[in-house]
Every structure is written in structure tokens, then in C-alpha cells.
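pinned: reference chain
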Amino acid sequence: MKKSDRIQELLEQLATGPAAGLDPRYTGWFACFNAQRYYDAHDVLEDLWLSERGADHAFYKGLIQLAGAFVHLQKQHIRPDHPKDGRRLAPASRLFSLAIGNLAAYRPMHQGLDVERTLALAQRFADALAESSFTTNPWHPDAAPTIELT
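pinned: its C-alpha cells
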């Protein structure tokens, strides 16, 4: 199955339609992110990002990076002693920083997203990682963050 077919199937499963004129790949990112399906969130929005060369290119890239950071945290949480997954905290921090850099220009609100709140979330996780010298994972599935459109 081609990646584009898999993304279309995923969007159909999520039943995310255009909300307030928003692309279903964009709204699908939130559905996946809030379901802790961070890798799927990354893929769904990447499909839109690859076709976007306009004003929202960096915005989508920042959200993809944010989801990617949570992929690292989730994998490290599941297998903290694994040779590869156990070393994902520093890469997660780098992705949080990149996401912050890409999203900052879109504050305070953009496409129904409270960018300020999203930046604070990313910064909170980046700070927690740095404060532990990348030894403690601040993510846990029972207290995973959600991001809602307004």
C-alpha cells in the first residue's frame, strides 16, 4: 500500500472532515496527536506539508516536529533500556526546539490553534528534559498532553 493510500485510509478511520474550512490532514494531525498516535500525526500532516510551499509551510513543519518529539518520548517510555529507544531524550529535545522555532512566527493564534499555548507545552517538555540532563522522560501515557483547535 502506498503511503498516500495509507494516509487516506487513516483519515477515513478518524472521520475527520473539513472543520471550518480546514484541510482534513490538518485536523487529522490533532486527532492522531490527542490519541497518542504521534507517528501517524507526523505522517498525516507531512502529506499536507509536502504540498504546501506558501505561508503555512513552516507552521506545518513545526507541528510535524512537535509530533516527532513525542514519538521519541513515547518510544523511550516504552523501551527505556533498549539500545536505540533508550537514547531518544536528547533528540526529542532538539525537535522541541526546532518546533518552537518554526511555530513562533505564527503566534498568538493560527488556523484555530492557540500557538502560544502550544509553544508553552513544547517549552515545558524541553525544559524538563534539560533539567534532568536528558535522564528523565517527562512524558507518560496517563498524563499525555492534548492540543485542541479553538
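why pinned: Residues 57-78 form the longest helix (22 residues). The two ends are 34 Å apart (CA to CA).
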